[in-house]
Write a structure and sequence with these properties.
Chain A is mainly α. Chain A has 5 helices and no strands. Chain A starts with 8 loop residues before the first helix and ends with a helix. Chain B is of the alpha/beta class. Chain B has 2 domains: 114 residues, Rossmann fold, CATH 3.40.50; 104 residues, OB fold (Dihydrolipoamide Acetyltransferase, E2P). Classes of the chains: A mainly alpha (107), B alpha/beta (237).
Amino acid sequence: MIQEIPNLNYIEQLSGGDLTFQDKLIGIIKTEFPEEKAIYLNNIESSKFKEASENVHKLKHKISILGLEKSYEVAANFENNLLENSAEGKEDFENILKSITNFLATL
Amino acid sequence: MNCIIIDDEATARAIISQLCSNVSSLNILEEFPNAMQAIKFLNQNEVDLIFLDIHMPDFTGFDFIETLKNPPKIILTTSDPQFAIQAFEYDCIIDYLVKPIVQDRFDKAIQKAESSEAPSKTIKEPKNAVETASGNDLYINIDRRLIKIDIPTIYLIEAKGDYINVKTEDKNYTVHSTLKKIEDKLPNDLFLKVHRSFIINVQKIIDIEDNSVLIKKDVIPVSRSNRPELMKRLNLL
């Protein structure tokens, strides 16, 4: 899968140039994303697919906020697979998480 | 319009709050990470518009709407386009915004909300959530689904405001109903009301101490007036 690069286009557009809001929202994402990722990894490790699908659902929103349109589709498919008790798409999804983790570390 | 935001994700709440800040007619009263907190607020405050996430753990947006006797206008905010058809079965739902929400689309939703009349006060009453009991089964209504519970697996029922928390061996269910309604559906020989807020399955008691019983890991108070009946049920040596 070709890796997309996260971006801040949506956040910048939403903020209308309000840098305080941009900083606030990025701060919230930097706090919330690692927490949600950790819960997901814990659930998938324990083969709790239903719970993991709920974690993926939440993470999906952050994927879309960071402009990762194709990755969003990958996450949506993975969420559906988990609901059907299949972990197909796990590796691609976790690569997206890595990409976001690396990106957030640069902000 | 006075608004509240209900979403379990802090990022989503911050985004909706920012979108609202660009619309002068909107006044955000409060934000909530879950529906239960919002219900308490709505019991004491007038709200014109709710931004409501559908996909929340324990208590979905639709569960929440079902609890409201006179719901205000509601704009759903969700990552799930597949709920759109279900959403429009409710008169109070004005619009359905798919995340990530952009300002233009948000503004259109607000225009719809402003031009629409307040939802009918005669909107359907929440259904009696404890529907039927037959034999060993009890059906409870959660999110428009009737879920079957095997009655003997219930070990505790706790009243919590307008809700009851039904605890079973496998799972806990929060249902919009009363202790009285569920008490009428349960077999008398198995269940006993030991306190105004608790019904227990007497077969699941682990021990009894003074004015409390231990069931699983829950310590449940026993009212003085209910204690004689509880003692009668026990096979005392």
